[in-house]
Specification:
Strand content: under 5%
Number of helices: 8
Distance between the termini: 39 Å
Shape: globular
Number of domains: 1
Order of helices and strands: HHHHHHHH
Largest sheet: none
Length: about 210
């Protein structure tokens, strides 16, 4: 046995097998599904969705398209966030596409200020929807950070902010079914509170740093 073989044997003698890395996309999808179920359940528990909302999907295809676009944007950004927690998993193209999709979805409400998908109405108004949006997104954010901290994120704060963007938009999207439909109300009291959780997550990442 030459010295190179002895060196390899010495280095590998005390090594133990490790479990294969988890598929980060499956982890992200599982988190998204669990978060959506949680948000829908707690929102329904506090106050059911707006009466007749499911019929509105059939009556106003643009409202259905707007909702499906939101689901797609949140899903993409959620996967983007979890990919950012694993070195080498996130590509620039995937990140740009996800953020562009999110911007495209939110732009629908800006367009709605002039031409709404549904006739604006006070029907189904929830008095504290802005607080609900923030509170209901908090547990998914904490759960996501707990998972992401174990995936060796190189840019922890950025990952935390992306996770909060996805989490904050889940109740913001569902509120357009659970609360009244009015683009101004949606932007100010659903979307803006959801976006504010990005700053909360950035502060939380600074307060709860990665273990050394």
């Amino acid at each position: 046995m030459d010295r190179h073989e002895r060196l390899i044997e010495n280095l590998s003698r005390d090594l133990s097998p490790v479990a294969p890395a988890r598929n980060v996309n499956l982890v992200g999808l599982a988190w998204l599904l669990a978060s959506a179920v949680f948000v829908v359940a707690v929102t329904q528990w506090t106050d059911p969705v707006r009466p007749g909302v499911f019929g509105q999907f059939l009556e106003a295809p643009r409202f259905l398209l707007e909702t499906l676009l939101g689901v797609a944007a949140i899903t993409w950004v959620g996967l983007l966030a979890f990919r950012s927690a694993v070195p080498g998993e996130l590509t620039r193209r995937f990140a740009v596409a996800g953020l562009a999709l999110m911007a495209l979805w939110l732009a629908q409400y800006v367009i709605g200020l002039v031409s709404p998908a549904l006739e604006p109405s006070e029907w189904g108004k929830r008095p504290f929807c802005y607080l609900e949006t923030m509170i209901y997104s908090a547990p998914p954010i904490l759960a996501a950070l707990f998972i992401a901290r174990r995936l060796y994120p190189l840019h922890y704060r950025r990952t935390a902010m992306l996770l909060a963007l996805a989490a904050g938009m889940i109740p913001a999207l569902f509120m357009q079914m659970a609360c009244l439909y009015d683009p101004t109300h949606i932007l100010l009291l659903h979307v803006l509170p959801g976006l504010s959780m990005v700053l909360v997550a950035a502060a939380l990442a600074a307060w709860w740093p990665l273990p050394r």
